[in-house]
Amino acid sequence: MSGALASVLTDFLGDALDAQVQVDAIGLGAVFALMAVGIGLVFGVLRLVNFAYGQLVMAGGFALAFASDRGWPVAVGIVLCFAVVLVLSLAMDVVVFRPLRGQSPAVMLIATFAVAFLLQSIALLWFGPLGKTAASLADLNRPVSVGDVEIRKITIVAIVAAAICLGLLALLLNRTSIGLHMRAAAMDFQTARLVGVRANLVSAAAVLIAGVLAAVVAVILTVQFPTVTPTFALRETIIVLAGVVVGGMNRLLPATLGGFAIGYVSGILGGALPTAQSQYLPSFVFGLVILVLLVRPAGLFTRGRPTVERV
Amino acid sequence: MRRDAGRAAVQLAAPVTLVAAAALLGATASRANEIHFINALVAVSMVVALYVFVGNSGVLSFGHISFVAVGAWAAGVLSVPEQEKPAFMPYLFDFLAETTVGNVGSLVAAAAVGGAFALVVGLPLMRLSGLAAGIATFAVLEITNNVLRYYEKVGPGLNTFSSVPETTDLAQAAVGALAVVVAAFAYQRSRFGRQLRATREDPAAARAVGVSIYRQRLGAFVLSGFLAGLAGGLYVHFLPINADSVYLDLTFITLAMLVIGGATSLWGAVVGALAVSALDSLLANAEAEGAVELLGRTLDVPAGTRIVVVSALMALVLVLRPGGLTGGREFSLASLGRLRPRPAREAAE
């Protein structure tokens, strides 16, 4: 019995440490980290868990599919994707987030549910349940061989794009005055307003930056999964939300690390679980989420005492 | 003291009357429309079950549909006639394949399984609060759905629950909804309910007077799981459901009903469930006819409009009235005179 268990464990570790599995897991973690930043940034400034974030990615995906349907060049498709996502983000901020500022987190979360439902059902009405195909960037799916590891080009693009975006964001937050305002608002919104931070400006800035990241994620995800359906990116959003809370929602860095970690762990488990168990992958991932939350409810990557928060 | 009893009677009578009125209206409706009323009554039992925990504790739970799901699974598996089980559930455990119980028995089993599952889940999870509790209960929903979907020894897996006796008619749905409402009311008037509501309003003060937040939350969670299991039993006896019917969409719609009605009162839970169901049914009928007469003009209503309108209205209600339609207050005769209830900040009754 223990021999059998040991061999299962060895197999599992062997698969988990396999270079191919590692590379794919890091690629997945990079995409999830980008989404985690988008969710974490908006939460930091607005204290609002934006469940509709995945639908922004979905809208971007449909923009890309629309462009490739019409035979427009790839660059035009990407511009359209950014435009659609940014306009939607801003509209969400003005129509829903602003009036709800200061409401209880539960009300804000349910409101973003409603927005998510709304966007999803509009997409269903418009494009149908089978969705559309975004084929323009399919070339990036071809692998490059490094030794005996086959790396899809999009994995490299995802990792590089994540690194660049996060670097730029760090510069923006630390070196510009709007970044300073956003950090101040994230620490204490009321006091920040008292000392002259303009509430509408910082919240619009946070939502727009999150929108840019959503558009980047849309471009990357449509390459990996070219069929864009109304539920596109919904699973990813749910998993990233869990990752963000597991990492620690109150600061941006722990939230980002949490997003990366849950993507990385899902990738490893997906690659290393025996075939018979692979259908239970969500159970393993969310079981881990529960365990970590029980041990460190304030976040895996946060330091110091947990803060009391009421939802 | 007597005034308090009078107020309590009004507070119970209002939701009971509303549910009974919905049932009576359903009894006069056509056969085709009756299904909407049954659906609304089942929704009431789910939303009130959810309210018992979320409303009284102030902690969001995204996991309650897992109790509905296990309740539905228990009632469904146990009440399908023995000879029909192999057709869509060929891999059942022997004791499940060989046992068949009647209507009431299966509902009791559904409630018991829901309550037991809530106890197992709540023992560790009720230590959490805030967003951590929200995500942890969401994780429970994910795991439950994942297991029910693929573990074919306890149910139909990806198949649909066909040939479950359709015993949830209008009368039974109404009795079920009323039972859940009365149980929720009895709980919130009990000392346990009051203690839990005290922890919702001010955890530190509640703790200071000796209330154990963990125990009170756990108690409400188990009762809530028990009632949600019962609602699941009613559901599976009403519609041929599958694993997708008791997953994300149902979670969101029940939470939305609760918040739209006003999450902190039983009256709000009932109003929210019935209002959203009514709107949903009206739009479903409009969709079926393909057009609607509005202000003398005929508007085309393509399939799928229903969800667009419902979710847009949901967002609208939350933006305009964040406290929900009832402001999160129980019904009282005094509030009839006031059109706009003051924002939800009710003292612990």
Descriptive report:
The complex is a heterodimer of chains A (311) and B (349). Chain A has helices spanning 2-17, 19-46, 53-70, 74-97, 105-127, 153-175, 177-187, 189-194, 199-224, 234-247, 252-272, 281-295, and strands at residues 132-133, 143-146, 149-152, 227-228. With 311 residues, chain A is mainly alpha-helical. A two-stranded antiparallel ribbon of chain A has the order 1-4. In chain A, strands 2-3 form a two-stranded antiparallel ribbon. In chain A, a hairpin with a 2-residue loop joins strand 2 and strand 3. The longest helix of chain A is centred in the N-terminal third of the chain and has 28 residues, at 19-46. Chain A starts with a helix and ends in a 16-residue tail after the last helix. Chain B has a domain at 2-245: ABC transporter involved in vitamin B12 uptake, BtuC (Orthogonal Bundle). Chain B has helices at 2-28, 31-57, 64-79, 85-88, 94-98, 103-125, 130-150, 170-189, 191-201, 203-208, 213-236, 248-261, 266-289, 305-320, 333-337; strands at 291-294, 297-300. In chain B, strands 1-2 form a two-stranded antiparallel sheet. In chain B, helix 2 packs parallel to helix 8. The model of chain B is unreliable at 343-349 (pLDDT under 50). The interface between A and B is large, with 45 and 42 residues.
